[in-house]
Specification:
- Chains A, B: InterPro entries: ACMSD, Amidohydro-rel, Metal_Hydrolase.
- Chains A, B: It comes from Sphingomonas immobilis.
- Chains A, B: Keywords: Lyase.
- The structure is a homodimer of 381-residue chains.
- In chain A, α5 runs parallel beside α6, α8 crosses α10 and α10 runs antiparallel to α11.
- The first copy, chain A, is 36% helix and 15% strand.
- Chain A contains 14 helices and twelve strands.
- In chain A, β5, α4 and β6 form a beta-alpha-beta unit.
- Chain A is of the alpha/beta class and 381 residues long.
- At the A-B interface, α7, α8, α10 and α12 of A face α7, α8, α10 and α12 of B.
C-alpha cells in the first residue's frame, strides 16, 4: 500500500482544558462535558450544546459490533489513542495509516460561544494546547487550529498567530452561526486574502457551527442527521464559489471534512448549469466557471464514498481526500485496511491517482513536513 | 438517435383557470398572476407567492443569448408550445424529443394554499383541465396530476380519481409545507399503499412546497437558489428511505424532477454508511439497505448532469432520466440535440444504457402508452 494520510482524525482534549484555563471573567463560557440526569451533556454558559442519552451499553454504542459484519471485517474495539500520542501511533500502525490531520472534540463546539472575547480565548487555549501536544510529531500529525468568527478582526489576529507557530491549516465553521455574515459576504475578503498570503488552508469540519446536530428526531432521524450534513458542505461551497470569494482569492484553499465527497461533482455541475442558464441574473460574474474554481481550490474528505472516485473527472481527482475519522463510530477504525482494500474495486483508475486519493492529495494540501516523502504535484489523471 | 423521452416539461395553464373555475366561496384562494408595480407576481389569497422584476428585456431574460455560446449551440428562441399542442409538437420534432411528461406552471404553486378545501378544488380543476388538454395525445404526452396534501383523506380521494381517469403519475411536494407531516411520518402510509396498489408514480418537482424559491438574495444568489434545490431533493429521498416509507410499500415509486441527479448516488452511499455505523440508534430498521431501496424505487431527472452517469453503478442506471425542462430558461431548448450529443462523451457506457437514460427509463417508469415502442425491462448494466 502507498502512503496513507487520514484527512480526518480527532483528539480528545483534557476535560478541564477550558474550565481550568479561561480567565475568571470568561469562565462562564467554558466548553465542558457534564452528566445531567441520564444524559452526557456538552455545555457552554447556560446552553446545553449537545446531549446524548447514556445507556448501560454505552461502550457498544460507539461500535458497529451489533450489525452483521461483512466477511473480512473486524469487530469494533476500543481505540488506544483518543487522548495520547503513543496509543495513537500504535493504532495507526495497525491501521496502516502513515500520517493524519487532527481535529478537536470539545473545541468542535467553539462556534456556540456567542461572546467574541470568550470565543477568541477558547480558540487560543485550544490552539496552544494542540500545538504543544503535536509539535514534536509534525512528521506524522498536521496541526490544525480553530479560528474565531464573531469578530473578523480576531479571526485575522489568530490566523497570523497560527502562521507564526507554523500551522498550515485552520478551522472555520461549515454552518455559519446565526448573526455572523455568511461566506458570500465581502466582509470575509480580508480573512481569505490573509489566508492565501499565509498559505493556510481553511478546514470546514462537518457539524461545526450548526445550532443542533440533531435536526430530525422522528423515524429515520439517526440516518438523516448524519446524511444531511452533506447539504451543509454543499451550501458552504456554493457560498464560497457562487459568491465569488474563492474567485477573488485564488490562493485560498478549502477542505470540507466528513461531509462526504460524492456530492462535490454534483454541486459543481449544477452551478455551472445555472451560471449559464441564468447568466443575466448572476452577480457577481466569475472569472472561472464554478467547476473550475472547485477544481483549483476545493477538496473534500470521505470515508467510504465511491461515486466521487467514479466521477472524479468532473472536478479532478485532487479534490478527494480519504479520511478515517478515528476514533469515531462512523469512522473506519479498526477496519481501515479492509475499507481501503475495497475502495477502488471495479473502478478504472491509475495507481498514481489511487495513491493521491488515499494520501498524497491530503499530505500535499495540508503541507505535511516529512523527510523522504515526495508530494510534489498531483499525478495527471 | 434512440427514443427520446423528456422527463421534465411544463405547460402554461390559461391565466384565468382558477379565478374562473373555483366556486365563489373559494375564489379568494385562486392562484393567479398579477402585475404589481414593477413586478410580475404570482398570488393566492393575500399572499404573494413569487415575484419577478419586469425589465424592458424580459424576453431576453428567459434566454441564454447573452452569454457566450459554445461552438454548435444555437441562440435562444421563443418556444412555440408553452400553451398549445401544435407548437409543442413542432418544437419537439425540431428538438428530437419523441414524448414527454408534462407538469404545470401556475399549479406548481398549489402547496401555498393552506385551506384544504381550496387546495383540493385547485387540484381537481387543474387535473381536469390537464386531462382534457392531453387526453387525445397520450402516445406523446404522459399526463401528471397534482395531489393535495393538507388533508390526506383528500389526497387518497384525488389519487383514486386520477387512476380512474387513466393517470399513471401524480405530483406531491418535494418540500413539505409547514404544518403538514413529513414523508417519514406514518400518517402517509395509506397514501403510499394506495399509490402502490393503483400503480401511480409520485413525482416531486423541484421548488414545490417551498415557502420561497428565493432563499438567498446576496452575492451568488441566482446560482445558489437553483443549485441548492438538489438539497431539497436529497432531503425528501432521505425521509422516504430512512423513514421506512418506501421499504414498507415496495410498489411505491418516486421521481425527483429537476433537482438534478448526480447527488443521488452520494445520498445512497452516505445513508448506507451511517445505517451501518449508527446501527444501534437506527429506527426503523429496514429490510433493504438504503441504496437498494433507491435502486428499486427512486429515479431523478436531470438536464446536463454527467457525474450520475459516471457513478450509475451505485444505484443502477435505471434511476436516471434525462429531461429538457421545456420551455424554461434553465432547460435545454432549443439545444436538445446539442446537449444529448455531448451527454455521454468520454464515458464508457453501452448503447442500451444510453437509450434507457435518454428515454426508455422514463417511458417505462411513467407508463407511456405508445404502439410499437417496446419499453419492457431495463437493459442489464
Amino acid at each position: 500500500m502507498s502512503f496513507v494520510f487520514s484527512a480526518d482524525g480527532h483528539i480528545v482534549e483534557p476535560a478541564d482544558l477550558f474550565t481550568a484555563n479561561l480567565p475568571k471573567s470568561l469562565a462562564f463560557h467554558a466548553i465542558r462535558s457534564e452528566v445531567r440526569d441520564d444524559f452526557r451533556c456538552t455545555v457552554s454558559g447556560d446552553k446545553i450544546i449537545h446531549r446524548m442519552r447514556m445507556r448501560p451499553n454505552m461502550a457498544d454504542m460507539e461500535a458497529t459490533a451489533t450489525r452483521k459484519l461483512a466477511p473480512g471485517e473486524q469487530p469494533a474495539r476500543k481505540a488506544l489513542g483518543h487522548n495520547n500520542i503513543e496509543g495513537r501511533l500504535t493504532d495507526m500502525r495497525a491501521e496502516g495509516i502513515d500520517a493524519e490531520i487532527v481535529f478537536p472534540s470539545l473545541a468542535l463546539w467553539t462556534y456556540h460561544i456567542e461572546d467574541p472575547e470568550a470565543e477568541l480565548a477558547t480558540c487560543q487555549i485550544y490552539n496552544d494546547w494542540h500545538d504543544a501536544f503535536f509539535r514534536a510529531h509534525t512528521d506524522v500529525f498536521v496541526r490544525c487550529g480553530v479560528l474565531p468568527v464573531r469578530d473578523l478582526g480576531n479571526t485575522a489576529l489568530e490566523l497570523k498567530r497560527l502562521a507564526s507557530l507554523g500551522f498550515t491549516t485552520a478551522m472555520l465553521p461549515v454552518v455559519m452561526p446565526a448573526g455572523v455574515p455568511t461566506y458570500n459576504n465581502e466582509v470575509w475578503d480580508p480573512v481569505f486574502a490573509l489566508a492565501a498570503e499565509l498559505g493556510i488552508v481553511f478546514v470546514l469540519h462537518t457539524g461545526t457551527g450548526q445550532e443542533d446536530v440533531v435536526v430530525h428526531r422522528g423515524a429515520g432521524g439517526a440516518v438523516m442527521n448524519y446524511t444531511r450534513q452533506m447539504n451543509d458542505g454543499a451550501d458552504a461551497i456554493m457560498m464560497l464559489v457562487a459568491g465569488g470569494m474563492l474567485d477573488r482569492h485564488r490562493g485560498a484553499r478549502i477542505a470540507c471534512i466528513e461531509s462526504g465527497a460524492s456530492w462535490l461533482p454534483a454541486v459543481a455541475e449544477r452551478m455551472d448549469e445555472v451560471y449559464d442558464a441564468h447568466y443575466m441574473m448572476v452577480r457577481p460574474k466569475l472569472d472561472r466557471m464554478p467547476s473550475e474554481i472547485i477544481r483549483d481550490q476545493v477538496a473534500c474528505s470521505f470515508q467510504y464514498d465511491r461515486a466521487c472516485i467514479m466521477a472524479r473527472s468532473v472536478v479532478g481527482h485532487q479534490a478527494f481526500l480519504w479520511g478515517s475519522d478515528y476514533p469515531h463510530a462512523e469512522g473506519t477504525f479498526p477496519n481501515t485496511p479492509f475499507v481501503l482494500s475495497k475502495l477502488f474495486d471495479g473502478i478504472e483508475i491509475s495507481e498514481g491517482e489511487k495513491a493521491d486519493i488515499v494520501g498524497l492529495n491530503a499530505a500535499r494540501l495540508f503541507g505535511l513536513k516529512r523527510a523522504g516523502l515526495s508530494v510534489a504535484g498531483a499525478v495527471a489523471a
